[in-house]
Predict the 3D structure of the following.
Amino acid sequence: MEEPEMQLKVKKVTDKFTESLYVLANEPSVALFRLQEHVRRSLPELAQHKSDMQSWEEQSQGAIYTVEYACSAIKNMTDSSVYFKSIDSLLKNSIALKEQLNSAQGRSTSTPQPKNPPGTS
């Protein structure tokens, strides 16, 4: 009879011990201590990641600005094609007029101009 009674007492003691360990393991202060340890270990790495991400963000913002500026310049050049065509036609007209002037000057220098006789001025 002693043995079943002893087993019952041992079971009660082990249950109480298990319950105490469970309460201690889930104690809020223990949980906060574990969180604090986790934060202390992971915070330097997280700070480095944050710094890296900010640096990458600055670099990508600079690249975005550069691309937007280049796109704007290309759009402006495309919009300016009318002006370039006008300049091209004006240059062609100028070249044609210059050639006409040159040919006209070449003809006028090849025909002798009458000279005034001496004594009649």
